[in-house]
Design brief:
Order of helices and strands: HHHHHHHHHHHHH
Low-confidence stretches: 205-260
Mean pLDDT: 75
Radius of gyration: 18 Å
Distance between the termini: 23 Å
Amino acid sequence: MKILALLARLSDYPTTELVDAQEDVAQLIVDDENLSQEDKDGLLAFFDGRLQMDLLDWQSDYDALFERGRSLSLLLFEHIHGESRDRGQAMIDLMAQYKQAGLQLDQKELPDYIPLFLEFLSTQGDDNAKAWLQDVAHILAVLKVRLGQRDSDYEAIFSALVNLSEAPIAYEGLVAQVKGEKRDDTKEAIDKVWEEEMVKFGPDSNSDACGSGTHRPSESQRRDREVPISFQDAEQLMAAVVAETLTNDATQSTSIAGGK
């Protein structure tokens, strides 16, 4: 699914290059055969609205959404494993898949960063890309609902991703569960995260590094028959993601969100 490469760019940190390519971006959305008309309309409205903003304002809003709290983290394993040791092994497994596909990451790139993950999937053929998306659809759906509750137009991107996966998502129950969450991007919550970061990692920590530049695999390196890594059972994990957030709210504990 080549459209995933574009959705990777739209979900990544906004850049001058993206703004300069606005005509090409709009045309790619219009011409794509995998997107529904509803998702095309949503993505075009999102992109047009963002183009009306000054780039610095767009970037500031992006930071406010995705860099200030765990609930909207763009790191997949942050939602599954938090800061547990299991996250490290999951990173290694995913890195192995990238390496087999010829994807090269620099030292500051985290493999579970959603834009990078989508860039990888865009080279894997439609069937395999859909299978991978289905494995993480529960996470994408939670992000969609949370963005919707914050009235963010970024919801359109995650709505399109969930729909591309064709995974069955019970949105009514998910909305009800997410509704009880407390915001983790407030000044108080951010201050607490900073305090915990200083205690756990110290001043030399590089835990928040996550670049977005990638070297995409060539067509000859596609792994259309690769069996995706299991991200756990979708329904169980969706419930776990929401339950963990609610538990964190109740105990007023937070985790460190990932960086770009």
